[in-house]
Amino acid sequence: MMEHRKEARTHLIYYLRVFDRADDSLFGHVVDVSPTGMLITCDRELDKNHQYQLAVEDTTLMDRLDVIHFNAECKWHSDDENDLLVDGGFKLISPSEPIVEMIAEYN
Fold first, then answer.
1. Along the 107 residues of the chain, how does pLDDT read in single tens digits?
2. What is the distance between the alpha carbons of residues 41 and 91, in angstroms, rounded to a whole number?
3. How many angstroms separate the CA atoms of 65 and 21, rounded?
4. How far apart are CA 69 and CA 32, in angstroms?
5. Is 101 helix (H, G, I), strand (E, B) or coil?
6. What is the radius of gyration, based on Cα positions, of the chain?
7. How far, CA to CA in Å, does 2 sit from each of 5, 6, 69, 77?
8. Residue 5 phi, psi (nearest 5)
9. Cβ atoms within 10 Å, residue 95
10. Which residue in 24, 25, 42, 103 is a FRET match for 66, CA 20 to 30 A apart?
11. Which residues of the chain form beta strands (DSSP E)?
């Protein structure tokens, strides 16, 4: 498979929980991040080119847990090694300063 990624990504040791803001349900877990996007593993069907309204738990602060809202477009998806999960590549849409700062902490 050809590599289309232009930026290096950072694989996370602890997968961050991601929530669907439409119904506050667990959407999946962030597996790795780059300055402009993230890989999310989930157990739901993903739609390529669909824009999702999500929230991620920011664990970069030691004294409190923050939740950061963000919008992301699914650029691709494929079955995970675990047949029950789906991996999706998401591009951040107009990322806010808090999400940019959180990702910078992991890179």
1. 344 555 566 555 567 899 999 999 999 999 898 889 999 999 999 999 999 999 998 876 666 678 999 999 999 999 877 778 999 999 999 999 999 988 888 77
2. 14
3. 17
4. 17
5. helix
6. 13
7. 9, 12, 31, 15
8. -70, 135
9. 19
10. 42
11. 10-20, 25-34, 37-42, 51-58, 66-79, 86-93
